[in-house]
Write a structure and sequence with these properties.
Layout lengths: L1 E13 L12 E13 L11 H15 L16 H18 L17 E10 L2 E6 L2
Length: 136
C-alpha cells in the first residue's frame, strides 16, 4: 500500500459552545492540516497521484477558512470543533477533486483499494493537539 500526504495551513478564530472552559471564549489558532491519500497501484508515471493536484485542493479549502470566524459559517452549526473542521475539509476536498475529474472518495459498498483514496484529514490546533477524520 502506498500513501502520500500534503499539508497546508490557515489562521482562524472560533469558540466552542456547550463547553465549560477557556475555549468557550473567542480565540484563534494557526491550524495545520494534513490530507492523506492511500492506494495500492501507481500510475504510469510511477506515482500514486500528482502532489500538485492534491495540494491545490487542500490549499483552496484552507483559503476559504483563512482569517474567518469559523462560528459564522453555517456548516459548523455554531460549534467548529477540530473534528468538525476535519470532516468539512475532507468533504470539500472530495467536491473540488471531483470537479477536476478525480474521484478519491471511498465507498464502503465497493471498496477499491487499488485506486487512490482520500482516507484521512488531520487538523492540528497546536503542535500537540490533533483531530482526524478518516474513512478507512
Amino acid at each position: 500500500m502506498f500513501e502520500v500526504r500534503v499539508e497546508a495551513d490557515f489562521a482562524a478564530a472560533h469558540f466552542l459552545r456547550d463547553y465549560n472552559g477557556k475555549c468557550e471564549n473567542l480565540h484563534g489558532h494557526n491550524y495545520k492540516v494534513f490530507a492523506h491519500v492511500r492506494g495500492s497501484e501507481l500510475n504510469e508515471g510511477g506515482m500514486l497521484m500528482d502532489f500538485s493536484r492534491l495540494k491545490a485542493a487542500l490549499r483552496a479549502v484552507c483559503k476559504e477558512l483563512d482569517h474567518t470566524n469559523l462560528n459564522d459559517l453555517p456548516v459548523f452549526d455554531q460549534n467548529p470543533s477540530a473534528e468538525r473542521i476535519a470532516v468539512y475539509i475532507y468533504k470539500r476536498m472530495i467536491e473540488l477533486l471531483n470537479k477536476e475529474g478525480l474521484d478519491l472518495s471511498y465507498s464502503e459498498k465497493n471498496p477499491d483499494k487499488t485506486k487512490p483514496t482520500l482516507f484521512a484529514v488531520d487538523v492540528f490546533e497546536t503542535e500537540t493537539s490533533r483531530a482526524r477524520y478518516s474513512v478507512i
